[in-house]
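User: We ran a pulldown and think these components assemble together. Before we commit to crystallization trials, I'd like a predicted model of the whole complex to look at. Sequences follow.
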Amino acid sequence: MTARTVLVETADPRRAAVAAATLASLPLSYTDGGSSTDAGRDAEVVVVAGSEGWVDRVRAAGTAGARGVIVTDPLPATDAGALVAHRPACTVVLAETWASSPALRSAGEQFAAPIARTRLVDARTLEPRTGRELRAVLFAELRAVQSLGVEVASLAIVAETASSILGVGRSTTGARIVLSAAHSDTADGSLDLLLVAPDETIRIELPDSTTARPGRAVLTSAGAAVEVPTIWQTAHRAAWLTLSDALVSGADPGHLEAFAAATAVLAGAGAS
Amino acid sequence: MTREPFGVGIVGAGPVVQAIHLPTLARLSERFVVRNIMDVNPDVAAAVAGRAGARPSSSIDELLADERVEVVAICSPSAFHAPQVIAAMRAGKRAVLCEKPFATDREQAELIAAASRETGVPVIVGAMHTVDPAWLAAIAEWEALGHEAHTIRSRVVLPPNARFETSATEVLTPRPASGLPDLDDPAVRAQMVFGGVLGLAVHDLPLIRRLLPAVDDIEVVSASALSPWGYEIGFTAHGRLVHAIGALTEQWRPTWELEVVSDEARMLLEFPPSYVHAGSATATITTDARAVRFGPYPHNGYEGEWLTLHAIASAGSAAAPPVDGLIDDLDFVLEVASAASETARQEATR
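Assistant: Here's a predicted model for the assembly, 622 residues in total across the polymer chains.
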């Protein structure tokens, strides 16, 4: 196995640090090709910061010859749909706070049937007061719900107070979708997901994306509770492995389509 | 104990009395002895009273005429609560415990309040979470530290009641099975949400009211009926956000959580399921520096209700909670129920 050369954008120190830590955890898959703000130069993989303008930087990396692009913690971007309509000549993987969680992926795979029977999805989290805007947090919740295999058809922001936000909507199968977030100094970056079906519940607790502390996913039915095995790996590392697999198989992971769909749902959720 | 146990009369002998009040009173035998149990079905009254060694009655007049009855618990359907509470007061009993909701509208609640003031007989409402020891300890700490809640989220997801009723007692009169509601019918959705608030959310709404600065500007922002039974409700009050979910399912795990968030702290209350005597809730207050846990304490909110009744029956009405507070709690519950049910009625379900 030959390690792919990686170039990490350095403009956003926090995201660059996350990428550097992830790179260090995958020495056989990736090798450091140096850091640069000139996205894509001589590197097979470019790690783009998901801060403002990331869509343009992804396109630039593809144009410069990168085979794969990883976007670290992408912010909601109204122009993400343009990447779907006019795809860059590279595979794009999004490394997201919760949507990339390996526990979420396992739960989606192992609990697919009960997830399809769900009548309620309740996602809730707390965000540090110095952290993201609550609409961005809500978007991250939406992406996590999507990644679980729940297709969200509609969402409305029904309350936005000084400290909290509430969005409600429906899945394509009619399940009630509830997304809520609030600011508090007690926030630990985790996401609490509860899915309720007539005969089952699924409780998923996801840590923040920079820790290898495992998420937990438990399906409870009338006669038992089943927990997916814990995976001690950060969400970012899982995303990087997704790109590695995609570059071998040639199959696109479909992140951009899902992200664009979520962007469209949030755009229809009402003005702030 | 410095006095003999108070004689108890219980109006209504349904599953709540069988599974909750009689087992609770059996744990408090130094303070209470059940003297009389009334039910409109004489066979049920006789069977349930027989379990407790009490005299059966088939009318409230008969029960109230029993001079050994000193305190009365009203556990009948809520439409009968107000006249029965007032009758107990006028019969000169020492105190009344009324199941929630203690009236069906403000007018009836005012009649109860007037009778209480006139007779001097105190009344408390059987709202077990309001007297759960973990809640009382945690809210005292929360308020002492000056935390102001800006977000309150409730999650109640429960298995069938029978799972816990049959763990608490051997129920004589099981609940009838209910069919699958048609949520495409707006009236069914509205009724489910209204009933959900009065039957389930009602346990925590008094706690929520205490955590809000005021509730005179409630705006329901979302409400939905959940299949097969449940509700989802969001509302704001004075710039605070409240969200509540309640659902009955066939799965086995009871979840009963109330989360309270401020800028600097978070309080999480985890209540045990209804019916069982599993001790109090657990409350955890977290700040960025530490987490402090309260409970579980040995006794639960059901015992808390009866211990409160014992205290006010012993000390007189001055020890009772202000009846105006009970009316305000009822007003709050009814307002949330009405506004949420109307929103659910109008909601597009697809």
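Chain A touches chain B through 38 residues (CB under 8 Å). That may be worth checking against your pulldown data before setting up trials.

User: Thanks, that helps.
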